[in-house]
Amino acid sequence: MDELSAVYEWLGEISCGVTGVHSAHVSQETSPASAERRISYVNVAGLLPACSVQDAVAAARQHMKDAGCEWAAVSVWGFLDAPVSWHGARHGRGPLLGGENDFTLLLLPRDQYVLFIAAGEGDGFSRISPG
């Protein structure tokens, strides 16, 4: 679980443009086989419909196949004070929080994925029980 947290934090650093700075929370260990790799970063801003996010995920999956990438990630950052959350849940806000919801889909081989969700404590989606 710590490795997933480190990956999520590293992806956040890339999204925020923090490069070349080593976070105290991220492991400094490197694998000799993959010590240095190139990444591609694409940023699209604005109010996007869900189908645009689905298209981005499909494009990332296709790039994985075409370029032989081991993984890809698509991150979506919500807007402050959006009126609704996922699945029509009331958006809500926690103390000292803007109320936006963010998620990152880490795409893995064989159509597997890891979904990271950052939702505020006051968000209705956070209280929806699975199943």
TrEMBL record:
It comes from the Eukaryota. One of its GO terms (cellular component) is multimeric ribonuclease P complex. Pfam families: Ribonuc_P_40. GO terms for biological process: endonucleolytic cleavage in ITS1 to separate SSU-rRNA from 5.8S rRNA and LSU-rRNA from tricistronic rRNA transcript (SSU-rRNA, 5.8S rRNA, LSU-rRNA); tRNA 5'-leader removal. One of its GO terms (molecular function) is ribonuclease MRP activity. InterPro entries: RNase_P_Rpp40. PANTHER family: RIBONUCLEASE P PROTEIN SUBUNIT P40. This is Uncharacterized protein.
